[in-house]
Design goal:
The protein has about 300 residues and is of the alpha/beta class. It has one domain: Rossmann fold (3-Layer(aba) Sandwich). It is built from ten helices and 14 strands. The strands form four sheets. Strands 8-6-5-9-10-14-13 form a seven-stranded mixed sheet. A three-stranded mixed sheet has the order 3-11-12, with no helix packed on it. Strands 1-2 form a two-stranded antiparallel ribbon.
């Protein structure tokens, strides 16, 4: 797996190519897009109650054990109704967007509205069981939204197309997948590769997910990514919490443009304050694909 994944899956400090400094180290990782979309890259076994050592960035990232079997046993498809989407779109147009994550999710709307251009775009949403992200993008003027989700989604809205990961892989490899203007993901990528939902156990699952997003977006396209923020650690198998080390690798090859992250969250006191308030704050980063900047 690591051979096919290339430098995306290299996290050793001595082998990391740092080319600058943003909020986090700016890391360059040359790789081949086609290799990211071979389905056997994700083959493996879920159900481990202890994470293999490769999840820990060579022992630099601590692990807290909290095993959850969240595998979805129902074979029913997710239903996305046009009426629901249009209701959510109206809420966005009225400046009170619907989110599945309260105030945390509003950052997607605020940053998309104020920091980038959505009007007329085709946006890919990564990981979505409720069309709030899609509706925000459409409410802000996106021409079309595509969604990729492990479960099959049946959606009758004319501006939404849905894929499962194998369908997305096939469309990319046979050249029928459109090039997207941007990608949006909130509370999804931090679960990649941990096996919580019955997916394959993969220590580089989140890094591969962001590399795939890079491949799917046009040059100078954007990514809006929301994941849990705090000192680097993994709550296995619930989710990953991103600090300066893990963020730098997650955002390899992406230009760091804007964030609503309070950098004090990376300190021990900031982390304790965050947890006392009820959990891990999911902050949002705006990134840009910039081939010339990274010489890729």
């Amino acid at each position: 797996m690591k051979t096919r994944c290339g430098r995306i899956c290299v996290t050793e400090k001595s082998a990391t190519e740092v080319i600058g400094q943003g909020w986090y180290d700016i890391i360059r990782k040359p790789f081949t897009c086609k290799n990211m979309f071979k389905s056997d890259l994700f083959d493996g076994y879920s159900g481990f109650e202890e994470p293999p050592h490769r999840f820990t960035y060579q022992g630099r990232v601590p692990v807290v054990r909290n095993y959850i079997n969240g595998q979805i046993k129902s074979s029913k498809n997710i239903i996305c109704r046009k009426e629901t989407v249009n209701h959510f779109i109206r809420n966005t147009l009225e400046g009170r967007p619907t989110t599945s994550y309260g105030q945390n999710g509003l950052a997607i709307y605020n940053i998309a509205l104020n920091q980038t251009q959505i009007n007329g775009t085709h946006v890919l949403v990564i990981g979505s069981r409720n069309p709030w992200e899609e509706s925000i993008m459409l409410g802000l003027g996106a021409a079309h939204v595509s969604t990729v989700e492990y479960s099959t989604i049946e959606c009758n809205h004319p501006q939404i197309t849905t894929y499962t990961p194998p369908e997305l892989d096939d469309a990319f490899l046979d050249g029928t997948l459109p090039v997207f203007d941007g990608v949006v993901s909130f509370s999804s990528i931090e679960h990649s590769g941990l096996g919580r939902y019955g997916d394959a156990l993969n220590p580089y699952g989140d890094l591969i997910a962001m590399a795939r997003a890079w491949c799917l977006v046009k040059d100078l396209g954007f990514a809006l990514v929301g994941v849990p923020t705090g000192p680097d650690h993994i709550i296995f198998n619930v989710h990953q919490v991103y600090g300066p080390l893990m963020y730098s690798h997650l955002f390899a090859n992406w230009q760091q443009v804007y964030t609503n992250t309070d950098m004090s969250l990376f300190t021990s006191e900031g982390h304790r304050r965050n947890v006392r308030k009820g959990g891990y704050l999911q902050t949002v980063h705006l990134l840009r694909k910039n081939i010339a900047l990274y010489n890729l």
